Structure formats: C-alpha cells, structure tokens
Write the structure tokens for this entry.
Amino acid sequence: MLVIQQLVNGLMLGGVYVMVAVAFTLIIGMLNFLNFTIPALFMFAAVLMYATMMGHLPFGNDLILSIFGTEYRWVAGIIVALVVIALVSLVIERFTYRYMKAKYGDATEHALPLVSSLGFLIIFEHLVVSTWGSDPLTATSPFGQGTFSIDTIIFSVPQIVSLVLSLIVVVMLSVMLKATKLGRALRAIAERPDTAILMGVEVGRIVPVVYVITGLLCAVSGILFTINYATVDAYVGDTVATVAIAGMVLGGLGNVWGAIIGGLFIGMLEVMSIYIVGADFAKLPIWGLLLVLLVFKPTGLFGHTLIGKGKF
Amino acid sequence: MTEHLLEIAGMHKSFGGLKVIDDVSFKVRRSSRTALIGPNGAGKTTIFNLLTGVYSIDAGTITVDGQDITQVPPQDRVTVGMSRSFQNIRLMPHLSTVENVMLGQHARARKLGDLLFPLGMLPRNRWRQAAEEALENAGVGTYPGEVVSNLPYGVQKRIEVVRAMVSDPKLLLLDEPAAGLNKTETNQLQELLERVSGQGVTILVVEHDMQFVRDLCDYIVVLNFGRKIFEGTPDEVHKDPAVLEAYLGTDDNMAEAENAS
Amino acid sequence: MSGYLESQLIILCLSIVYAYGIFLPAASGQLNLGAAGFITLGAYASAWFNASTGAELPIWLSIPLAMIFTGIIAFAISFPILRTRGVYMVLATFAFAEVVSGVAINLEFVGGAAGFPVDDHADVTVIVPVTIAVILFSFYFMSTRLGLSLRSIHDDESVATLFGVNVRTSKVVAFTVGAMLMSLGGSLYGHHYNYIEAQTFNVLLSIYILLYVLMGGTQTAWGPLIGATFFAIVPEALREIAESAGLKWLAEGRFILFGVFIVLLMVFRPEGVMTRTLQDRLGGGLFRRKKPVADDMTGGS
C-alpha cells in the first residue's frame, strides 16, 4: 500500500513538472535554445501568487483586498500572476530572440539566447530576493488541507486538481499544434524558419505568441505549486527546472507528448527512488539514464517529435 | 610518374533518388590547367566535394598521382596533395589573413611538435614567414594581421586561393575563383595562377567566366545534368554541337556567348 | 594584504582557473555546462590522495594526480559527449556533472553527504602563482597550431577538415585539457578551504563559469580572464560602493543590474567583451605587425 501511495505522490509531483517540461520542449523545438527564463517565470509566478494571496505585494494590496476580499484573494493571485507573466514574456522575447542577431553563423550562436535567458534568471531571482528576502515564504492554502482517501491511500485535492489541469492545458496545446492555423505556423517555423518566412508565415508575430504560451504554462504551473506546497522561495525554479529538463530529455527534445510522459515518469522515479534508496542516491539513476540517452539516443524514448526536428 | 595526375573513373552520386553525378570519368593531365564547366546544377561543385571527401561517392574510383583515394577520409586527402577554394568565400571569419593562410599549411604540420609550436607567440617563425611570403606573392601581402571578415571581397577571394596553395598541393581545385571579381582583379588572379602552374601545380578550375577559362585553361571538361558531355581543348569546345545545345541553349544565349568571345 | 582582499583574490583566482577550463573547448565552439562535475572530481580526488584516510600523498603530488585522474575520465567521456552538438552537448555535460555529484554524495570513503575535510592547506602564495601559470599556459595553448585548429573548427568545421585538421582529436584534446584545468581549480579550492562537499559544486556554479567565458568572449585567450575578473570584481565593487554611499537598494539589488548588463551585452556585443577585432584595435594582436598601406590593392568592392 505504501508503494501505491508513493506512486500517487510521484504522479502528483510529476503534474507540476509536466507543464514546465512542455515549456522547455516548445522553446527548444521552435527556437533551438535552452530557455532558462522558464524556471525564472515559474518561480516568479509562484511568488506573485503567494504575495497577492497574502497581501505582500509591493503595492496594490488594499485595492485587491477591497475588490476580492480575503476569501477570494487567490483568484486575484491567479490573475496577477498570469497577466504579469504574459507581459514579462513579451519583454523577454525581445531580448532573447528579436534583438539577437548572430554574425557569421557563429558556432556558439545558440548560446546567445541561452546567455540572455540566464541573465533574466539572475534578474528575477534577485528581484524576488531584494523584495521578499531569501527565506522561504509560506502561504496559507485557500483550500485548507483538502484530502480524501480511497482505502488507505491519501489523495490531496489541490494536487489532483493541478494534475488534471496540467493535462487539460497540455492536451489543448497539442490539439492546437495539430489542428489550428497557428499550430501549423508554429510547426512550419520549427521545421524550417527561412522557408516558413518565404511561405508567408509572419515569424515576427508568431514568436511572441510562443513566448506568451510558454510563459503562461510556467505561470499556471507556478500558481499550482504555491497552492499545493504553500512554501516558495526565490530558488524554487532551479530545482523544478532541473527535473523538468530531465523529463524533456527523456521524452525527446521538441516532443510535447514526450515531455508529458517524461515529466510524469521523472516525478514518479524521483519519489520512488527517494522511497527505495534514499534522497542522496536519487539523482544518480535519473541523470545516469539521461546522459546515456542524450549520447546514444538523442531523440529520447519516443523518437518522433511533434515540433522541431531535434536539429543541431 | 603517371601521365595523369587525377583520374576519375565511373563516378556516381545520388542524393535521395536524384542522380547528381552519373557515370562521370575523366583524367586531368599533370601540370595542365583544366576547366570543369557546365550550366548551373550540372554537378561541378559536387565533383569537387566528392574529390575532397565532403561527400562519399556511391560508386567509382578517384586516383590521385597513382594512389586510389576513394576510401581516404577527408582530413587526410589534403596530405595526398590536393586542396581547394570555395565557390562562396569560406575563410575563417575570426582569423586574421595570415592565420587563415597558416591553416592552409596544416597538412604539412601534423606532427606533434608542429602542433604544439607557438605560432602566435614568436613573431618570426618559418610558418609565419612562409605564409606572409605566399600572401606577398599573390599581391595581398598588405593585410597579414587583418581579421578577414573586415576585408574587401576581391581580397578575400584571393586569400582563399593563397590558403589553398600553401598546403603544397599537386592538384589545386578552384571553385569559381573569378566570380565577383572585376577586370583588374581577374587579370591579377590569372597571372597568379599562371605562375603557380609554371611551378608544376596542376589546376582544375570550375568557372562560369568563359573568357577567363579560355585565357587560362588548356583543356576543358563539360558537364550537363551530372553527365560528361564533352572533353577537349578550348578551341574544340566551341564547335561541339552537344556543348552548344546543352551549355549555351537557345539562340539568345548563343548570341550572348558570341559577344563574350 | 587584508583578510578581506585576500579572500576576494582567492575567489578571483579560482574563477579564472575554472573559466580557462571551460574556455578551451568553447574556443572550438563546444559548450560545456559540466564545470561543476570536473571541479568535483578534482577536489575530491586531490583530497583523497592527500588525506590520512586515503593515499596520504603530499599536496604537490595529490594535485597533479587528481588532474591526471580527471583527465582520464574526461578523455573517456569526451568521445560519447563530443558526438552530441549544440543544445544536446549543453545538456549532456550538465547531466554528467549531476552524475558526478550524485556519485560523490554516495561515496562513504570521501565523506558522503556529510562532506569531506581536506588535510593540507594551500594559501594565496600557492594559488596566485598557479593561476598565473594557468593563464600563461592558456595563452601559449591558443597560440599553437592546435589553438589555431580549435579556432578554425569554431568558425567552420568542414573547411578545417578539408585542410587536414583532425577535428575530433582537436576537440578531445581541448575538452580533456580543459577538464584538467578545472580539476586543478577544484583541488585548489579544497586545499584552500580545507573542506569540500558536493553540494557546493552545483549547476549554478557551472552556469556562472560558462557565463564568465561567453561574456568575456571565446575568440581570444583574453576572454576568460576578462570575463572572470569582471564577474568576480564588479558585484563586490558595486556592493562596496553602494554600502559606503548608503545606497541600500543598490547593495541588495546589484545582481539585478548585473543581469540587465548580461542581457544588454548579448544584444550589443554578442561575441563577448573581447573579440578578435577589438584585440587588434587595442594593438595587442600578437599576429599583427603591418598596417594596410595601400588602398589600390583592395580593388572594387
């Protein structure tokens, strides 16, 4: 029974990783770079959610309180986090994509947006530290403990909600990629950016959309994180990102469904290996597997990619 | 010593289902100046890429100086005595002129001692002097320390030829060396190549500028759609009906060709 | 020298040594996000060779042995890792560092998760000369024909191949020698602070070292020196200035400015602070002697 309980916990944890992994995979598949603003946005959304709920925003706390009241401040938190992250994503797009012009097809060309995104990671982490401090910030969950149990296995309601929500968001995303005009344009850019431009795809207008989509994925994930675990800090993105990257690699770079399965799998693997071999030993099997996978089967476990070609 | 420096026999290459080189065979006489011509897409640059090992060939053999090099890996082909320039300039943009030329010397400096020799720290060393001399001889000696991406097109084009020459090749492969050059520059290039040829180096050149080809070369191979349709002297090439039809095409082009000659 | 300045100098020196370790492969266009892994290897190996519970060798033997040990491991993994490119290489080296850290935490004979005390002490009189030697070595290395090959591979791998450069061997050498330098940095760290734990050498360290190198510029051997010096000194200097001027917000938020600087640098100087062209303009170009004298050679352009 304890094993099943661990599996359930792993699945819940995986639910948090899934959306972040999908965000990573979308940017890699489309734009060919490892975007470290993703953990920053995840963390920033989580902290904004906390600050709005607890009335710790630098300004506007009273306004929010007068509109939403203490009861529904979590709704305001969601709105604030989503709006801020969407706007911030547009700024990030300019500095990691639009203004980037590498000369001569430099071999380290793909490093430029990577470095910029690391710059943003530093900015956001220190923005949060200098505003809210570096100690863990604890929120009170609007939903209380909210658990129920089947037999002896305990399920937490917020965790189930977040898992289901993650899956819904991601399913919508992959349907969008397959079936809509925007999705086709996105896949066209991922396959051949230059040809896509020639075929009339407006890359300049589509790429910001990609950033906003990935930003919102991170934001939703960060919001759910705060609701679930109630404790956030400036560095919470780093840990989540490491694991989400692992999930993405497992599923294959650019493969949305792969990222989902990879994220869930890594979540379970983490919980299970902590349970079986202890926390210190836990990351060894995960990263060993990934290293082997990256070197010998870089397309990941599921081979075919939904967007991008796993180029390079 | 074989009479022919380069022998290509039964060369085939396909990309996907597309036959790019279809049973091409020809020989390049030692110390000759041979031109490889043909309309766009005839497979000229592909032949260069097959010769230098950028692509592997599907069937056939390549023999240089009596040695079958078909299976020799690309980084060793230059030591067989063959080097090339490129259709689009492919100098190393972040290297200076003299460094680019010293890269050309690499084939002669693959021993450990040579690899660990501090070229850049000793201002006067033989590699560097040789490179500067080669630049001087080619008339581009004024820019040894300049980063090449800052230099004018015509100069870069000639530096490419110099870089190819300093590996001491027996066979120099030049892919459209005169493209984009003005009249003066083309003449300077021709002079340079004649001098190189005078030292016994065999030249195989892909070129669209027919005037340049006629002035420089003593032998011409014509390709069309991946097949060889003619080989002979520059005088004969004019009279060959297959070449006229395939290469020059319609009457308009013919008139243009007449004007050019 | 005051204790404070000395501690800053040590941090600067270690940063420089690490940065050169990442720079050598980066000069040929290989991005290595696994610095922490090689530093961990060096720190633990040297500590164990030196420890009374280990091989009990003197420090002047334990450090070179640790470098050789790291070199062998780096050489072995360089073949599979160099099969990967671009983002895949970034991820593979990152995964490697995580594996090393995972192993170190689980090896009880080097202290496991509790960390490992290091016996012999290396003070500033050791670290500064070693750092200078590393800098000189790196300048020498980049000035050789091998260095020229690496820079050529960075610009155009296939053309380098056609001129006879053995691309794979060159990359393997750069990767391995780089790993040995990071190992050296790691052992110096251990011997200076006399205590190591794997958690110190985390992904953030790898990220910062890669940043030093890319910000400094990968085209010349000046790059990592400038990048590491800048990174180690500027935030500290900003803190000093801000505190003495009573600007509390600046002291706390100096890293925000720093992040902004990184982002802007990538827009305006994507090839790093020190580029080949800038080096020439400053007159430091080792290859430069003559200036262009005649314009008539340029022809029509």
